[in-house]
Design goal:
Elements (H helix, E strand, L loop, with lengths): L13 E6 L3 H11 L5 E7 L2 H11 L3 E5 L7 H8 L7 E6 L4 H10 L3 E4 L4 H12 L4 E2 L1 H11 L8 H8 L4 H11 L4 H8 L3 H14 L5 H11 L7
Parallel strand pairs: 1-2, 1-3, 3-4, 4-5, 5-6
């Protein structure tokens, strides 16, 4: 059996703007990203207003956005950036673990959420993931959203969630379980010895069968199906 073909590699580096009011944090993030041959840090900013100016000047593909900053905060800046003429993808970054912070960042338009204690490899992986068209949430951020939204939505009772998960194939169920653990498509591929393209195909079928619009919706379905899962 031959592996599924992977999409052709991107030839140009991914352009990244780093936004953080702490110059030491910016330097640390830059140092991490400069180790990746497919990433290029094209600028830095110390607050939201400066981030908007730098983005207009450098047209980054991805913005690593600190949430808590003096002046214009990262949430306000994110909302402005995603509505720009050439909107970048925003990955929110914060030093505090807050359910409300996760929700506000995603509501503003961020496609990723990380804590500042995230391992360097995960920071690089998050940028690559969002550029591939997927969202990236740290495992703790995923759990926050499950707690926040697990009491509503389509999956109103454990029985319904179990019935929906029962429509999945064994492989699709494995993918769904790993999504609920907060793993990216690349990590799922490594865990299941599949190509990333194959994981994306399985995940698309999972989302269709579970009527889930996002990875978070898949995670909520899996959580509800477990013993003691949340109900309405």
């Amino acid at each position: 059996m031959t592996a599924d073909p992977e999409p052709p590699p991107r030839t140009a580096p991914i352009r990244v703007l780093v936004v953080d009011d702490d110059p030491y944090s910016r330097a640390g993030i830059r140092a991490i990203l400069q180790q990746a041959p497919d990433l290029e840090v094209v600028g830095e900013a110390a607050d939201g207003a400066e981030a908007i100016d730098r983005a207009a000047a450098h047209f980054p593909d991805v913005v690593i956005m600190d949430i808590r900053m003096p002046g214009m905060d990262g949430i306000t800046a994110t909302a402005a950036l995603v509505n720009a003429v050439r909107p970048p993808l925003v990955v929110a970054l914060t030093s505090f673990d807050s359910e409300d912070a996760v929700f506000r960042a995603l509501e503003a338009g961020a496609v990723g959420f990380l804590l500042k204690d995230t391992p360097p490899a995960d920071l690089v992986g998050a940028i690559r993931t969002v550029m591939a068209g997927d969202a990236f949430l740290s495992p703790r951020a995923t759990l926050h959203l499950i707690r926040r939204f697990g009491v509503g939505g389509r999956f109103t009772v454990q029985h319904d969630a179990q019935r929906l998960l029962g429509t999945l194939t064994e492989r699709e169920r494995e993918v769904a379980e790993l999504v609920a653990e907060g793993l990216t498509n690349r990590l799922i591929a490594d865990r299941l010895f599949l190509s990333e393209a194959t994981v994306k195909v399985h995940l698309g079928r999972v989302m269709l069968k579970l009527a889930a619009d996002t990875r978070v919706g898949v995670a909520i379905a899996v959580e509800r199906a477990r013993p003691g899962g949340r109900r309405r």
